[in-house]
Specification:
The protein has 419 residues and is α/β, with parallel strands linked by helices. It has 2 domains: 233 residues, Adenosylhomocysteinase-like (Rossmann fold, 3-Layer(aba) Sandwich); 154 residues, NAD(P)-binding Rossmann-like Domain (Rossmann fold), CATH 3.40.50.720. The protein has 18 helices and 17 strands. The longest helix has 20 residues.
Length: 419
């Protein structure tokens, strides 16, 4: 481990490889680079301290550099023990950033690094999963008076923040970047779908075609996972607790049933619900010999691994695949039940993260521009800012679209004209 007061990374000598990966990501993140170019001229974040708890990936490094270019001082830690790309963390450390994280970090180090960012006394927080915000509200209330606001990246974090708001526990405004159309309808759908399958393939090298894939949860992430599994030739079963989403899954051509039934049929199980104990030991006892279980929700709680570890013997047979012997059957758990797309793969493709991080960058700018005027609630960016991100990406893709004529605008804004 290489460590000083400003960083803690696995191996600082990985910095050159990390820099090459960051440069490679930048080539696919041109929408975010357009914002970076504007930030360089305008310096809208000058004098602001930003504390971040995000996945330490090459794409996140591009966001960190964008915020610094805008004038901010940044400190960042990992938001998941298995998601850090060690070469990228080393590169950021070598460039002088405050960065704390390594792949496979202990729970103790996870919270140590979180508190390193808190000790930085940020004016704005950027979170993925709400652990940074939660830790500040529970144990560092004295910092809240100097915090302008925060941004939340993922569905699980927004769920936790809305619970805080409901309990009147949220003490500064948080922008739910996840609620941007350019985030949850792109990142969650296209990104999670592709990167989840990528992580499972790297962990197990199984053939998807012909197998039965059970997707637990049919939100934006679940829809993306199910679509990609189907596209690779899988038979897809969906389990849900929401009647509308269950209906959608049925209309999309998937079988829909309870997990007790699906457990007997599936070859591969993927949880994407954001909830706890979606797959229990009792479910796993019903599974086929050789079934694989993976999670693509933010926290490692969707598969009841605590109970599984008590009930079964285990051994690690591949870097990100553990074999459990349960009732004389082999059940395989991928990525320790953590986010499989980051535990065993590299997370979302850079193009997808470009759009998400455009949202983060513009959300930070919005918080600064509206300092002291926003309610202490979970809020959504204005529609025009979300659409601005779409326009940036359309420019990158060299796509031109039609514009409404004055006659069409008038027609859409009136009610008098009919058939």
């Amino acid at each position: 481990m290489d460590e000083n007061e400003n960083y803690c990374v696995k191996d600082i000598n990985l910095a050159n490889q990390g820099q090459m990966n960051i440069e490679y990501a930048e080539k696919q993140m041109k929408a975010l680079l357009k914002i970076k170019q504007r930030f360089e001229k305008e310096k809208p974040l000058k004098g602001i301290k930003i504390g971040m708890a995000l996945h330490l990936t090459k794409e996140t490094a591009v966001l960190v550099k964008t915020l610094k270019t805008g004038g901010a001082d940044v400190a960042i830690c990992s938001c998941n023990p298995l998601s850090t790309q060690d070469d990228v963390a080393a590169s950021l450390a070598k460039q002088g950033f405050r960065v704390y994280g390594y792949k496979g970090e202990t729970t103790e180090d996870y919270y140590k690094f979180l508190n390193k960012v808190i000790e930085f006394k940020p004016n704005i927080t950027i979170d993925d999963g709400c652990d940074l915000v939660s830790e500040i509200h529970k144990n560092h209330k004295e910092l809240i008076k100097d915090i302008i606001g925060g941004c939340e990246e993922t569905t699980t974090g927004v769920i936790r923040l809305r619970a805080m708001e409901k309990d009147n526990a949220l003490k500064y405004p948080i922008i739910a970047v996840n609620d941007n159309k350019t985030k949850h309808l792109i990142d969650n759908y296209y990104g999670t779908g592709q990167s989840t399958i990528d992580g499972i393939l790297r962990a197990s090298n199984i053939l998807i075609a012909g197998n039965t894939v059970v997707v637990a949860g049919y939100g934006d992430c679940g829809k993306g996972v199910a679509l990609r599994a189907k596209g690779l030739g899988a038979k897809v079963i969906v389990t849900e607790v929401n009647p509308f989403r269950a209906m959608q899954a049925g209309f999309d051509g998937h079988k829909v049933m309870q997990m007790n039934e699906a457990a007997k049929l599936g070859d591969l199980f993927i949880t994407v619900t954001g909830d706890i104990n979606v797959i229990t030991v009792e479910h796993m006892k019903l599974m086929k010999d050789g079934a694989i279980v993976a999670n693509s929700g933010h926290f490692d709680v969707e598969i009841d691994l605590k109970s599984l570890k008590k009930a079964a013997e285990s051994r690690r047979i591949r870097p990100f695949l553990d074999e459990y012997t349960l009732n004389n059957k082999k059940i395989y758990v991928a990525g320790e039940g953590r986010l499989i797309n980051l535990a065993a793969a590299e997370g979302h493709p850079s193009t997808v993260m470009s759009l998400s991080f455009c949202g983060q960058s513009l959300a930070v700018e919005y918080l600064i521009k509206n300092k002291g005027e926003l309610e202490k609630k979970v809020i959504t960016l204005p529609k025009e800012i979300d659409e601005r991100i779409s326009w940036l990406q359309l420019g990158v893709m060299n796509i031109n679209i039609d514009k409404l004529t004055e006659e069409q605008k008038k027609y859409l804004s009136s009610w008098q004209e009919g058939t």
